[in-house]
Write a structure and sequence with these properties.
The complex is a heterotrimer of chains A (about 375), B (about 350) and C (about 475). With about 375 residues, chain A is α/β, with parallel strands linked by helices. Chain A has helices spanning about 1-15, 75-80, 100-105, 110-115, 135-140, 150-160, 170-180, 215-225, 250-255, 310-340, 345-355, and strands spanning about 30-40, 40-50, 65-70, 90, 95-100, 125-130, 185-195, 195-205, 210-215, 235-240, 270-285, 290-300, 365-375. In chain A, strands 1, 2, 3, 4, 5, 6, 7, 8 and 9 form a nine-stranded mixed sheet that branches. In chain A, strands 10-11-12-13 form a four-stranded mixed sheet. The longest helix of chain A is centred in the last third of the chain and has 29 residues, at about 310-340. Chain A starts with a helix and ends in a 9-residue tail after the last strand. Chain B has one domain: Amino acid/polyamine transporter I. Chain B contains 15 helices and two strands. Chain B has helices at about 5-15, 20-30, 35-60, 65, 70-105, 110-130, 130-155, 170-185, 200-230, 235-240, 255, 260-280, 285-305, 305-315, 320-349; strands at about 245, 250. In chain B, helix 2 runs antiparallel to helix 8 (about 170-185) and helix 6 crosses helix 12 (about 260-280). The longest helix of chain B is centred in the N-terminal third of the chain and has 33 residues, at about 70-105. In chain C, the strands form three sheets. A five-stranded antiparallel sheet of chain C has the order 1-2-4-5-3, sandwiched between helices. In chain C, strands 6-7-9-10-8 form a five-stranded antiparallel sheet, sandwiched between helices. In chain C, helix 4 (about 140-150) packs across helix 7, helix 8 (about 270-300) packs antiparallel against helix 13 and helix 10 crosses helix 13 (about 370-385). The longest helix of chain C is centred in the last third of the chain and has 39 residues, at about 390-430. Classes of the chains: A alpha/beta (about 375), B mainly alpha (about 350), C alpha+beta (about 475). Chains in contact: A-B, A-C, B-C.
């Protein structure tokens, strides 16, 4: 009797459960990218769905197809978009979310709430901003060699660091946290279409959850340098441009360059590549900040024909770099002040030390302590004519 | 139960109540200093566990039912109180397990269908006794420990020490309260182990080990998620696993790794059903016990049908646990102290 | 005319053995006494009868003969004096020759050689190690064991089971090592058997295992004498049955079924890795179809995206849900395996070509199954080929179905619950009173290192604590 009861219980357990959540693999539409626009007071949502019927090597079939939905709020927009697909939308493999500038300026709060609350979205996908084009156009910009936009964007941001680090990838969770927390800096990489290919052009800075400005590549690199995330940084210096930049005596300056036949020095540049950098920022007193940067530089281009056999040249070049970097940092800080964004991280350090937020962070003095080591100069000395 | 089995069982028992309640309650009270209060809570919890060890030692090798046979009224009241406390823990943990699995694993399946197989397993456990629970716990411990070590080492790259600075921002009241909560959550399930023959030494050892692991997990949650996200989620210990990425391809495994929490819940439910069965009168045990389990199951699913009720009342969970613990443990310890005195007097005579 | 009164015993025997053309009576007259020599020609060997009895008796001089000294004239190694005439047909059936002189009956052993010679084992073949195996003759089997255990502590208790077959069953144990309770339990169980005939040790294995219904095997049967001898020295008890080449080893634990004894003859360092791998193969082969279905249908986020696209691509062409595909493939593989066991290999390899065709390209191209499912099921069966004992294969099949069904209905959570059910079930079994999941659940490192890993010979000094109470340390040689 007891065995029959237990047997019935077990059968009831099994037969009535799983048909609710069992979804056949071929009933799922795998979505790898979403783009959100805001036009005519309506949200426009586009999904990029991977096409499983494509075979490798055949170019007639497309690798992705799209579904679009328009509505006045996010819930209905997503619903309208998924009405265009013949399978159940499956978001767990979502790779990238593309937002337009309009959304960055006014609608981050809606996006934030929608993506964090639902359990169907993962929260480890990346977010980018679109510039000069709508987000939809960037999502649909799939060419034959890079058909899936989600993977292309991630690879683009990862691999842009070979010569100059412009931006790092930003995950949704980190982005939302940085817009909510006063102590963090919120930014997103900006993507546009250049020369018929997707490219990164700087970063977009957020303040209190709204998009403020877009920085260009060089300023973006300075930001990554300050946050210790920089892998490569480029500095160029025009020869003979500003004599006040040089702090060595004049007659020694001529002695550090080699005699060459070609005396033209206009529009010639020296190029440096900074390979290792370490930044430390400390709060000294209530309104003083000390920035401590250690750099390892290597010489890449030597059009000015500096004489690399002498020790003085290296000192001179290191001083040159120091001055140039300090100039760039000061210009960066001015930009920050104008745009009212705290990118140096002063508020966080102040809070960690004094346990309250500073009243006014713009009136601070910065003391720079930069040390540059010119460690490599390439495998040639000078290329003479 | 041998020593290793007791160690493994206590490992699962102490970690259960942290699943939905422990971490989020402590974080809401003490913000990002919760890990400091956890370290202090370890010491208080040790004293709770030592009390239970004392009762066990005086009890000797009898079961609790036989030990309480002589004192009729007192024994009867104690048995009923113990059954009520064990049943309360059973309902709590079963409801928690249901809501946990149906939020993440089964979105469309109704709650009670998820709990039915667990009830069948509990009836089988109760038939076979505490010995069976010990053996299963031993094997599950061997599976569960490497997973936790693997995860803790993989999260070192995501720890951001800025998230816990500045230290000791919370007020003294808050830290004291969250210390007490830690002790309650980790030490109260030891009530279910009053039927063994251990003299308390392995209880305390197992408690220290498990509390240490819980502290490490709490530290990881606070430092990885950060101050904003910690308060946001109801199950921070699940969401911290979403950041996991190792070897370039192993990611999104939070559903697989969450089985360590399911093991915790099942072993605790098994211990409580064995405890309830041992306290019932021996005559009709084969029929009354399954009916009792089914009644508990119905209570847990129909009163906690909406997850909103569960989440809004989950803040108040530690208080009935504290009261229940001391109502049972203090009279029992006084009783065993008196009996020990009588034994000594009889031996002298 | 003097009428000879035939011996009453002989007439009784004649009446019993009517219609038995192999029943032979030889009369000899020496002096005044009549000696009757009775044997069954099919089970007794004529040459031995002749050599031991007839030749000697025919040379006796009549004067010296005395009935009571007849034993001095017969040379047979095994001689029994029968007091009870009821036992005569038992001895006759066992190949003994009866020598009847007036009221005295003597039985002399003259068995015919009705058994195979010692050959190689059929199912436990290893590359290294001894290659002799048990036979149908119980004396030869005992001899093979006693060659390896040359000690007088090896005791044997003999029982006779089966009303008609009267099969000899021997229970062997080492007196200075084994716990005597096991022997008593086994004897009690065997005495309850009330049956006509037993033909093989497999008939009584089921009975010895007790009344619990379980798919997992609790008794091991083997044809190798070296495995039997090493089990005896660990404190286990052996049951040998006449007419059966399989010996039973009791009590057997789960960890004993996993590794073969041929590992002990191979170098130590190379073999530990494979031994641990085999242990995990048990769980792999049981859980993989269920895990695959659970992960693909409930949790596909674990797979990397490109792999998932490939799976979806393959599953598009198949009309059945994944569960039905898995069922079809597993059923086909089970049928293939059964046919492989039965079909005589003389008929050629055309059958295996058929099987390969079904499982190969043709099934995929016709749209019945997807290639991934073939890989998964093939992997399952390859890992199950590690276990050669049929009892273990049946147990694996039973649990594989259980995991498959629970993976389909409840996903990964269901597989976890079924795993816990398996643990409860296995840890609650007992094999002759000892816990079945012995080295793992009540943890014992000495026994674990012997079965799941290999200890070098000079460090293998202790026996396990649960089976052996006295003489836990192994004996060193005195020379």
């Amino acid at each position: 009797m007891k065995k029959i009861m237990i047997g019935i219980l077990i059968i009831v357990c099994f037969l009535s459960t799983g048909c609710y959540d069992y979804i056949e693999l071929s009933d799922r539409a795998i979505i790898s990218g979403i783009s959100i626009d805001y036009k005519n007071s309506e949200y426009e949502v586009v999904f990029e769905i991977l096409n499983p019927n494509s075979e490798t090597g055949s170019s007639d079939k497309e690798k992705v197809f799209y579904a679009k939905g328009n509505a006045t709020n996010m819930t209905e927009a997503f619903n309208n978009a998924s009405l265009n697909i013949d399978k159940k939308p499956y978001f767990a493999h979502l790779k990238v979310l593309i937002l337009s500038e309009e959304i960055g300026k006014n609608h981050i709060a809606t996006i934030r709430d929608y993506f964090l609350r639902a359990t169907i979205f993962p929260n480890n996908f990346y977010v980018v901003l679109a510039k000069d084009k709508t987000a939809k156009e960037i999502l649909k910009f799939s060419i034959e060699s890079e058909p899936i936009v989600g993977e292309t964007l991630i690879n683009l941001i990862d691999n842009n660091q070979y010569f100059q680090t412009v931006a790092q990838k930003v995950k949704l969770e980190d982005f939302i946290v940085s817009t909510l927390d006063k102590r963090k800096t919120a930014y997103l990489p900006v993507i546009t279409v250049e020369n018929e290919k997707l490219a990164i052009t700087g970063i977009g800075i957020f303040n209190e959850g709204k998009l403020k400005t877009l920085f260009k590549e060089q300023e973006a690199s300075v930001l990554t340098l300050l946050q210790n995330e920089n892998k490569n940084y480029i500095m160029t210096n025009q020869c003979n441009l500003d004599e006040t930049l040089v702090t060595i005596k004049e007659k020694e300056e001529t002695s550090i360059k080699k005699e060459t036949k070609n005396k033209e020095t206009v529009n010639k540049y020296t190029g440096f590549n900074i390979t290792k950098s370490k930044t430390k920022i400390n709060v000294m007193e209530k309104n003083k900040v000390k920035i401590n940067i250690n750099l390892n530089a290597s010489l890449v281009q030597n059009d000015c024909n500096y004489d690399l056999h002498k020790m003085d040249t290296y000192e001179y070049l290191e001083n040159l770099l120091k001055q140039q970097l300090q100039q760039e940092l000061e210009a960066f800080f001015k930009l920050c002040q104008e745009n009212d964004v705290d990118l140096i991280g002063f508020q966080k350090l102040y809070y960690n030390k004094y346990r309250i937020y500073p009243s006014d962070w713009k009136q601070i003095e910065i003391e720079y302590d930069i040390t540059v080591t010119l460690s490599k100069t390439g495998i040639t000395y000078e290329v003479e004519e | 139960m041998t020593k290793k089995q007791i160690f493994s069982t206590t490992y699962f028992l102490s970690g259960t109540l942290f699943l939905g309640f422990g971490y989020s309650i402590m974080i809401n009270v003490a913000n990002y200093d919760a890990w400091i209060s956890a370290i202090l809570g370890l010491l208080i919890g040790c004293s709770f566990v030592a009390l239970i060890g004392y009762i066990n030692k005086q009890k000797g090798p009898d079961k609790l039912y036989d030990y309480l046979k002589n004192a009729k009224i007192f024994g009867f009241i104690m048995r009923i109180l113990l059954i009520i406390v064990s049943a309360f823990m059973f309902i709590l943990i079963l409801a928690n397990l249901e809501i946990f699995t149906s939020s993440f694993f089964f979105v469309h399946t109704p709650n009670y269908m998820v709990a039915l197989p667990v009830i069948v397993l509990m009836i089988i456990f109760a038939k076979n006794g505490l010995k069976c629970v010990g053996r299963v716990a031993e094997i599950l411990f061997i599976i569960s420990l490497p997973i936790i070590i693997f995860i803790c080492t993989a999260f070192i790259q995501y720890i951001d020490l800025d998230n816990i600075k500045p230290i000791m921002m919370a007020s003294n009241n808050q830290i004291a309260l969250s210390t007490l909560f830690f002790a309650i959550f980790s030490a109260t399930p030891y009530l279910l182990l009053l039927n063994t023959e251990d003299d308390g030494k392995y209880y305390v050892l197992g408690y220290i080990f498990t509390a240490f692991v819980s502290i490490i997990i709490l530290f990881i949650i606070i430092s990885v998620l950060g101050p904003t996200l910690m308060h946001l989620y109801q199950y921070p210990e699940y969401f911290v696993l979403k950041k996991f990425k190792v070897f370039g391809f192993l990611e999104r495994i939070e559903n697989i790794v969450s089985i360590i929490w399911i093991f915790n819940c099942i072993i605790t439910l098994a211990c409580s059903s064995v405890m309830i069965k041992d306290l019932f009168p021996k005559k009709g045990q084969n029929i009354t016990f399954p009916i009792f389990t089914i009644i508990l199951f119905l209570i847990s699913t129909y009163t906690i049908n909406h997850s909103a009720i569960f989440h809004s009342y989950s803040k108040y969970v530690p208080y009935p646990l504290l009261i229940g613990f001391f109502i049972v443990v203090i009279p029992l310890s006084i009783y065993s102290f008196k009996k020990n005195k009588e034994h000594k007097k009889m031996k002298e005579n | 005319m003097v009428k000879y009164m035939k011996n009453k015993l002989v007439t009784d025997l004649e009446n019993l053995y009517t219609l038995n053309p192999d029943f032979i009576i030889r009369e000899l007259e020496i002096g005044t006494s009549k000696i009757y020599i009775v044997f069954l020609e099919s089970v007794a060997s004529g040459t031995k009868v002749d050599g031991f009895i007839l030749r000697n008796l025919s040379r006796i001089e009549e004067k010296q003969f005395n009935e009571k000294n007849i034993l001095n004239y017969i040379s047979a190694p095994n001689l029994v004096e029968i007091k009870d005439p009821e036992e005569m047909d038992y001895y006759l059936a066992n190949g003994f020759t009866l020598v009847i002189v007036n009221e005295m009956i003597y039985a002399l052993e003259t068995k015919a050689d009705l058994f195979r010679s010692i050959s190689e084992p059929t199912s436990e073949k290893y590359l290294d190690g001894p290659k002799d195996s048990f036979n149908e003759n119980i004396q030869i089997n005992m001899g093979l064991i006693k060659r390896r255990i040359k000690s007088s502590d090896l005791k044997t208790e003999q029982m006779i089971i089966g009303g008609v077959s009267k099969t000899i069953v021997n229970i062997l144990y080492m007196e200075n090592i084994t716990d005597i309770n096991i022997v008593k339990i086994i004897k009690n169980q065997l005495e309850k058997i009330n049956i006509d005939a037993i033909y093989d040790s497999g008939n009584i294995a089921d009975f010895l295992a007790g009344e619990k219904k379980t798919a997992l095997p609790t008794i091991a049967s083997t044809e190798r004498p070296d495995r039997v001898s090493s089990s005896l020295l660990e404190g286990k008890v052996i049951v040998l049955v006449d007419n059966s080449p399989q010996a039973l080893i009791l009590p057997t634990f789960f960890v004993d079924f996993i590794n073969p004894i041929g590992d002990n003859y191979i170098k130590n360092n190379n073999i530990n890795f494979v031994k641990i791998l085999r242990f995990f193969c048990f769980f792999l082969t049981v859980m993989i179809p269920g895990l695959y279905i659970a992960l693909i249908s409930y949790n596909p986020e674990i797979l990397p995206t490109s792999l998932l696209i490939n799976f979806v691509n393959q599953n598009q062409n198949v009309p059945f849900p994944i569960f039905v595909e898995a069922l079809i493939m597993i059923l086909i593989c089970e049928i293939l395996r059964e046919s492989d066991l039965r079909f005589p290999s003389n008929y050629g390899s055309a059958i295996s070509i058929l099987g390969a065709l079904i499982l190969g390209e043709a099934a995929v191209n016709s749209g019945i199954v997807s290639p991934v499912m073939i890989i998964v099921v093939a992997f399952t069966y390859i890992t199950s080929l590690i276990f050669t004992e049929i009892v273990m294969i049946n147990a694996i099949r039973h649990f594989r179905w259980l995991f498959l069904i629970s993976g389909f209905f409840l996903g990964f959570y269901g597989i976890v619950l079924t795993f816990i059910y398996f643990l409860i079930h296995a840890t609650n079994l007992d094999s002759v009173g000892y816990p079945y999941f012995y080295s793992i659940a009540p943890f014992d490192s000495t026994y674990l290192k012997k079965t799941l890993m290999k200890k070098p010979i000079n460090r293998d000094r202790r026996r396990s604590n649960i089976l052996v109470k006295k003489n836990v340390t192994k004996q060193r040689s005195k020379i």
